[in-house]
Automatic annotation (TrEMBL):
A Pfam family the protein falls into: F420H2_quin_red
Coiled coil segments of this chain: none
Family: Belongs to the F420H(2)-dependent quinone reductase family.
Domain Hemerythrin-like residues, every copy: 150-290
Protein name, as recorded: Nitroreductase family deazaflavin-dependent oxidoreductase
Annotated TM spans: none
Organism: Streptomyces anatolicus
Reactions catalysed, as given in the entry: oxidized coenzyme F420-(gamma-L-Glu)(n) + a quinol + H(+) = reduced coenzyme F420-(gamma-L-Glu)(n) + a quinone
Matches recorded under Gene3D superfamilies: Electron Transport, Fmn-binding Protein, Chain A, nmb1532 protein domain like
Length: 308
């Protein structure tokens, strides 16, 4: 639960289209909803931010305290976040900046809001700078869905796009690694935080999608189409195999910056092959059936609001 003060800020923010008075009069705030690193519950935190071109930058200042704020630990565990900015709400991936980029962005933050420089001066920890990134390839996904088949295609396009994005970032990482290494130079100790965050966000979204299908979609369809039982059994088994590989990826990424790059690359390629085959089979098997089911679902015929 937010503190009473934060709760009052959240309520004022939502009641006035993102405007907050009192000590925040004239300042830009956003609401960041994260998933608890340990609890798995949603937490909403009002935060100041700085714009850098099209980027939104957050600083894990915690008012200069010796520990990172809770929301920062949350985004390391679950990078997919919800952002409320003014009257807009959108999904983003929280990516901590590293090395020179972190220093450059922090200088940009301090130039806009000098108080963050004071917070840094009062603590020995390096204040993290977190970039809120919109998921890649969203512009390529149709926004309207008239049937459950359309909705499945939307989700699958998003998953394919995110997986492609993670693989492209991974290959770019290895290309840069090769360019900076000479004979006898040991490999880098781990993957970049950007790859890690995008991969974990993808894995969380994939797990949610497959759990929803196993729990709700497949049982409902199987009840009306017993002739497809073997199809649903195969899809459920493929979910288990993808989840196993996904669990190995998550274990590799559990320690920030300490994943084995070559092993990660191998597991990611295996995930890509398994998931691509699975999505292709699922679409071939279910899209004709799902095209007959309207989206969004309405109340049962004769109950609630009439359907038009």
């Amino acid at each position: 639960m937010p503190t009473p003060f934060n709760q009052s800020v959240i309520e004022e923010f939502r009641a006035h289209g993102g405007k907050v008075g009192g000590p925040f009069e004239g300042s830009e705030l956003l609401l960041l909803t994260t998933t608890g690193a340990k609890s798995g519950k949603e937490h909403t935190t009002p935060l100041g931010f700085v714009r850098d071109g099209g980027l939104l930058l957050l600083v894990g200042s915690n008012l200069g305290a010796p520990r990172h704020p809770d929301w920062y630990h949350n985004v390391l565990a679950h990078p997919a976040v919800t952002v409320e900015l003014g009257t807009d709400t959108f999904e983003a991936i929280a990516v901590p900046a590293e090395g020179e980029r972190r220093d450059r962005l922090f200088a940009r933050v301090v130039a806009a809001e000098p108080g963050y420089g004071d917070y840094q001066a009062h603590t020995s920890r390096t204040l993290p700078v977190v970039v809120l990134e919109r998921p890649a390839h969203e512009a390529d996904i149709p926004q309207e869905a008239a049937s459950l088949a359309d909705k499945m295609v939307q989700v699958h396009l998003w998953l394919r796009g995110q997986l492609k994005h993670v693989r492209e970032e991974t290959e770019a990482y290895f290309a840069a690694l090769a360019a900076h290494q000479g004979p006898g130079v040991p490999p880098a100790p781990g993957l970049g935080l950007r790859i890690r965050q995008h991969c974990l966000a993808f894995c969380d979204a994939l797990a949610f999608h497959h759990t929803s299908e196993d729990t709700h979609l497949f049982p409902a369809l199987a009840g009306h189409h017993p002739e497809l039982r073997a199809t649903f059994d195969r899809l459920t088994e493929e979910h288990r195999e993808v989840a196993r590989i996904q669990g190995e990826l998550a274990a590799l990424l559990a320690d920030v910056g300490d994943a084995d790059p070559e092993r990660f690359r191998t597991e990611l390629a295996r995930m890509s092959a398994e998931l691509t085959d699975h999505l292709d089979y699922e679409e071939e098997s279910l899209l004709p059936l799902l095209s007959e089911i309207p989206w969004p679902p309405g109340p049962p015929t004769g109950e609630g609001t009439p359907r038009h």
